[in-house]
Design the sequence.
């Protein structure tokens, strides 16, 4: 990668490879339960936020509202969620898991736990502590870069 020192390029390459493998492993683990990884994320978020609005769910998942709407339609067709209009503000749609959705969410939690145990849990405690510290630094640097971009973006372009 032009313009990067060799160590930074090596770290980025390892990070990118890890992200790719992570997506593959999580995708396969979610497929074992008949879910797409995105749907699994929705179920997980709903298990922690019963009755959340569709708008707030999109924000929690960092996805566009139309993307969330499409995902929710599929989950509703499969009997995993139910939606209703907010009693106070009819413009808002609220969502909750059905009994089947809650059961599916619990199975997915087991898959997430197995994933963490087989990957991160396989590292020594000192390595996990250092990894958490380093990921925190990376997250802070990334958040700062995003803030700089948002601050310099013309109004309305940072959605």
Sequence:
């Amino acid at each position: 990668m032009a313009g990067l020192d060799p160590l930074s390029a090596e770290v980025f390459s390892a990070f990118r490879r890890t992200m790719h493998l992570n997506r593959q492993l999580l995708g396969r683990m979610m497929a074992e339960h008949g879910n797409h990884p995105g749907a699994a994320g929705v179920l997980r978020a709903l298990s922690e936020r019963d009755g959340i609005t569709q708008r707030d769910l999109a924000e929690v998942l960092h996805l566009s509202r139309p993307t969330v709407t499409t995902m929710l339609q599929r989950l509703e067709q499969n009997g995993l969620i139910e939606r209703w209009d907010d009693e106070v503000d009819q413009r808002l749609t609220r969502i909750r898991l059905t009994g089947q959705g809650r059961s599916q969410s619990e199975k997915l939690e087991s898959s997430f736990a197995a994933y963490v145990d087989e990957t991160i849990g396989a590292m020594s405690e000192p390595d996990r502590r250092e990894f958490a510290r380093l990921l925190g630094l990376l997250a802070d640097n990334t958040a700062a870069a995003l803030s700089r971009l948002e601050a310099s973006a013309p109004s309305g372009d940072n959605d």
